[in-house]
Amino acid sequence: HAVLKTSSGKIRRAASREMFELGLVGTAPPPLWLQMTRLALGAARARAGAALRHSARWLYGAWCWTAYLLLALPVSLAVALLRRPAYARPLAHYAARLYLRLTGMPVAAAGLERLPAGAHVLLANHASYVDWLLLVAVLPPRPGYAFVAKRELAGSRYLRAVLNGLGALFVERFDARQGAEDVEEIVAALRRGQSVGIFPEGTFSREAGLKPFRMGAFVAAAKAGVPVVVAGLRGARAILRAETWLPRHGRPEFEVGAQLAPAGEDWAAAARLRDAARAEMLRLAGEHDLGGVLPELPR
Fold first, then answer.
1. Eight-state DSSP code of residue 9
2. Which residues contact 212 (CB under 8 A, 6 or more apart)?
3. What are phi and psi of 288, to 5 degrees?
4. What span, in angstroms and rounded, lies between the C-alpha atoms of 268 and 107?
5. What is the tens place of the pLDDT at every residue in 204-232?
6. 81 Cβ partners below 8 Å, 6+ apart?
């Protein structure tokens, strides 16, 4: 046993050198049963560690859903019954902050002082089911934001009542004519002094990266003559990705970036605003550019 060899008789040079350096040349190898026992124990430790981590993920996910239901059910019922966004938004804000603390995921926010006092359009990237919860928790509740939601959500009577209680604005994503009318509602809200929060991508998926922007937010900002404030969410995709319902622990971050003013009210001004906002959001979100444009509105 002075020179170690493979099963086919080739010299194991590196292993033999290591044995020589350790002063183990000539010593008898451990018996086969001992080697097998060590292998079995190592495999058992690895399996036990994997099972423990899997169980911990499931327990944490179960706690996230339990805490969510305990808070969301009474809060959403109160919001639906109040029908007063001025009272419902602070309630949702503090409930969301409490939830994130209970689950160990408070949002690290930066740049909130850059939010203007007047009406504006706040844009954020959309990466996860929890994006809206993070925004509600981190943004100031008074006077608060009227978030834009896809019109499909209005199909549920209860969900529609909750969103109306928060002052949400519904938009149609697939019908261009209805979408243009919905943009006019956003313009009217901005002219009344109401700030609006929008995910310009419109949707999200498991795939990382900033998806094409829809033009509605930029057309509304240009027509209303209000600035666009670009923000970025980081770490949300890993918490609850698309096509899964098991939350994972994460460290979400939110940063407010540049404030962009529209240079006109026409489509060209809205397109320039979109391009500038996209460049800023790519910097803030920390994801790669999937490129492309989704112009769903007629010029």
1. S
2. 201, 290, 291, 292, 293, 294
3. -80, 165
4. 36
5. 888 889 999 999 999 999 999 999 999 99
6. 165
